[in-house]
Amino acid sequence: MADGIKDKVAILGMGCTRFGERWESGAEDLMVESFMECLEDAGIEKKEIQAAYLGSHFIDVNIGRGATPLSTTLHLPYIPVTRTENFCATATEAFRAACYSVAAGVYDIVLALGVEKLKDTGYGGLPGGVGGGVNAHMVGFNGTAPGMFALLATAYARKWGIPMEKVKDAIAHVSAKSHANGAINPKAHLRRVISEEQIKAAPMIAYPLGLFDCCGVSDGSACAIVTTPEIAKSLKPNEDIVKVKALAISLSSGEESTYNNWDGSYFATTRIAAAKAYEEAGIKNAREELSMMEVHDCFSITEFVTMEDLQISPKGGAYEDVMSGFYDLDGTVPCQVDGGLKCYGHPIGASGLRMIYAMYEQILDRVPEERKVKNARSGLTHNLGGSPSQNVAAISIIGKD
Amino acid sequence: MIGICSYGGYVPRYRLNRGLIFAGIGWMNAASIALARGEKAVANFDEDSLTLAVAAGIDALTGIDREKVEGVYFASTTMPYKERLNAGIITGALGLDEHVRSADFSGGLKAGTTALLSAIESVESKRINNLLVTVSDCRLGKPASSQEMLFGDAAVAFLVGDENVIAEFKDSYSVTIDFSDHFRGASAKYDRQWEDRWIRDLGFAQFIPAAVNGLLEKTDLAMSVFAKVVYPCHYPAARKKLNKVLGIAPEQEQNNLQAEIGESGTPHSLVMLAAALEEAKPGDKILVVSYGSGCDALCFEVTENINKKNGAKGISGSLANKAELDNYTKLLVWRDILPADFGLRMEEDQWTRFSSLYRMRKFILGLWGTKCKECGTPQIPPQRICVNPDCGAVGKMDPIRFSDKVGHVTSYTGDNLAASYDPPSIYGQIEFEGGGRFMFDITDCSFDDMSTDMAVSMSFRRKYYDEKRDLSGYFWKAVPVKEVK
Q: Same domain for A102 and A170?
């Protein structure tokens, strides 16, 4: 009988580049940068890595297909390397695959690396292309990512009968909080403190989302080396060991987009993945048991509804928690402690691992005082790919004993 | 009895005040002030002659069982395809059976009446019971030309058959002359014309009487018996002269809609006929004359069935649903006259895989989905496995048409990042009454009109134009249902 991933895998080391418009760096430079930090943290040699997973999403503007971009850049010595791709959850998928191959007992030490080089398109926002398949342009609406997620806002306002001004107030606080956290993080892409008034006055990108409701489009790479808790303890006998507590993933069944049982105001997948993750980790009350979170705030409204989908705020009640500072860095369950996608940045295929990195450095108490979450013992990451009606939600929970 | 069994019309929602054209480019042609009166109908950026014809066809088929339609004729001089049957696309969009006859009629502006005559004669042959005739044009005049002022976009459609005839066909008379007053070569974008005085004094003044007198002589009818006389001619002085010469009294003359629509080309005399039928009484005789490379003159007699209203919007319904196009440059950009910068995002090359389009044609052209035989759930796009989680039946689907369903907006946005001919790009989730939902572009509305729960109907539109391959792609969009006063 399968009994889940809890405590079967430990994170031996992690690395994460500075995210941003890395005009000077190609995907290869970014991979090397995150990998060298990770390898040093793990305290092992490259040849000890037995298998690797590469996460990267936009093949057409990035590194191309397959997993050879990783194996040939790092010069991995003829080991198995596999590409994972699942929209914005791509890096979490690489991490998940690495963890499962360790938990299965097939390998002892495995690398998961995510990378995305977005800033070679010549225009703002995410690249276009044929992400929805070669026939999508024949029938798909003429939209972009901010527009697809903006639909959440009009649907949320409709469902709960609350005026859009109130939604705007709450999502402005969501972004202001992430800007405050990003401003003090030297690796973050966007490092300016922005007021709620500035956020609400920004140019409209896709109603009701303005410029500051959208996350940074960034280049970057993040990675992890995972192993068994026993090996981790033997290699690092005097250090805290961060273990994987849960890995849950849920994909749309097509009901949201094709069956009239979803009102467009929430993520059906996140709700299911959260319930499974809490069960796997043995969490009874997420609001009280989690130390902190790093969620998929591609847009402020996404983070806002996710607070409810993760069972932290009551359904229809995220407004009160957000406005009261519950999710601020000094709040009860701090969220986006490194700046989030919003300000740390969002290189699609690296983001899931960056979120885990943010939790990892807090749990190991490696951040300076001003960024520190008090008593950070466990952290949740939530990585969402696709659009509100068709997506993948991936949740990881890590913690120390 | 054979004739017109139903009629429908479509005039695009946007109307451009001709004063705005003059304000924009009148400096180039000061004399065009004489034409800068009234407004002209302008197809939206996602409309063309083919989508206009579909809209008119849908209107004409209001209340009619589409399974019974046996063919589609399409007449236009501005068809999107030279090879690929345009009427075939229309047949698919109307959701008709594929075992029907369809054909394109083009060339001269009298192609509309010729298509109508061909349909009538086909039914007369008794080898076919009915045919839908769709006629439309979107002709383009160069900036600062008189054609730019005069031309407007419109479409009309008639179901021709021998059941429930509302206007019986009596007779016709045709004249064909190679008179190149207007012409466009095979690859020309703009209309080109010869001198107005020649067109007026030799063209209209000669050929319309030739066709009319030919028909009157053939049928032994006097002009005075006609309740309405329909003929296109945008020259006011020439109309006056023709009315005098032919003995057309003011109450007999059908308004040529120059101030409301403009000279619409191939459909024009038939747009006027559809407008005339809206006002007609049983027993009325109507004389219809087309013009362009000659003339067709047709005589109809209205029957008692005219009083049975089927709910079609007609020309007057379309005319009432209007919005001002407040900016002349929008038209220039929409017609690719002004090469605006749409941004690099627009330059992403996405080409059409025709083998894939063929497989998906029922969905893409006709907006067909599926309905589960087991649980009755309507679903779109077509599914193999029922989406209802409590059902999940495999391969038990019936086709179901969504194009004629009313939907409601459950979420929406106006996207300024998306490359668009009319930003912001508006779209949202549409939930159909009775079940089924899909994310659609929303068109023919301004963002300020949007609200959740508002009702929408479906409209066949040009989804994209692939400039590199001169290829128009079509799909359905949602249009807010408005109360037309």
A: no
Tens of pLDDT, residue by residue over B342-397, are 988 888 888 899 999 999 999 999 999 999 999 999 999 999 999 999 999 999 99
Quick one: B273 and B419 in the same domain? no
Tens digits of per-residue pLDDT, A53-79? 999 999 878 899 999 999 999 999 999
Cβ atoms of B7 and B160 within 8 Å: the answer is: no
User: The domain that contains B456 carries what CATH number?
Assistant: 2.40.50
Terminal Cα-to-Cα distance of chain B (whole angstroms): 36
Contacts of B416 in chain A (CB under 8 A): 203-206
User: In Å, how far is A393's CA from the nearest CA of chain B?
Assistant: 20
> A261 and A153 in one domain?
yes
Pair (A85, A153) in one structural domain: no
Question: What range does the domain containing A63 cover?
Answer: 10-122+219-235
Element (H, E) at B114: helix B111-124
CA-nearest residue to A252 within chain B is B387
Sign of the dihedral through C-alpha B461, B463, B465, B470 = negative
Going by C-beta distance under 8 Å and a sequence separation of 6 or more, which residues neighbour residue A3? none
What is the ipTM score, two decimals?
0.95
| pLDDT at position B483 over 70 | no
Residues of chain B found within 8 Å of residue A119, distances taken between Cβ atoms: none
Inter-chain CB proximity B415 and A389 less than 8 Å: no
Residues of A within 8 A of B427 (CB-CB) are 141-143, 147
Q: Does one domain contain both B266 and B204?
A: yes
Q: Within a 10 A sphere around the Cβ of A204, how many other Cβ atoms?
A: 18
Residue B291, token pair as written in the block: 């013009």
Spatial neighbors of B301 by CB under 8 A, at least 6 apart, are B167, B168, B170, B283, B284, B285, B286
Q: Residue A247 is encoded by which pair of tokens? A: 């890995």
Q: Are residues A253 and A330 in the same domain?
A: yes
> Within this chain, do residues A316 and A273 fall inside the same structural domain, yes or no?
yes
Of the residues A58, A260, A387, the best mutation for testing chain B's interface (the one with the most B CB atoms within 10 Å of its CB) is A260
CATH number (domain holding residue A334): 3.40.47.10
- Domain containing residue B171: 3-334
pLDDT of residue B485: 43
Q: Which of residues 23-82 of A touch B (CB under 8 A)?
A: none
Neighbours of B485 (CB within 10 A): 5
A132 touching B, CB under 8 A? no
Task: Find which of A139, A148, A209, A265 to mutate to test the B interface (most B CBs within 10 Å of its CB).
Answer: A139
Confidence band, pLDDT 50/70/90 cuts, at residue A124:
confident
For A150-184, the pLDDT digits (tens) are 999 999 999 999 999 999 999 999 999 999 999 99
Number of folded domains that form chain B = 2
In-domain check, residue B349: no
The whole-angstrom separation of Cα B90 and Cα A285 is: 58
Q: Are residues A230 and A160 in the same domain?
A: no
SS3 A55: strand
Residues A259 and A374 in one domain: yes
Q: Are residues B157 and B226 in the same domain?
A: yes
Residue B447 amino acid letter: F
Confidence at residue B345, expressed as pLDDT on a 0 to 100 scale = 85
Amino acid at position B105, single letter: F
A31 plus A84 within the same structural domain:
yes
Distance (Å, whole) CA A300 – CA A322: 11
Asked if A206 is an interface residue toward chain B (Cβ–Cβ < 8 A), one would say yes
Domain total of chain A:
2
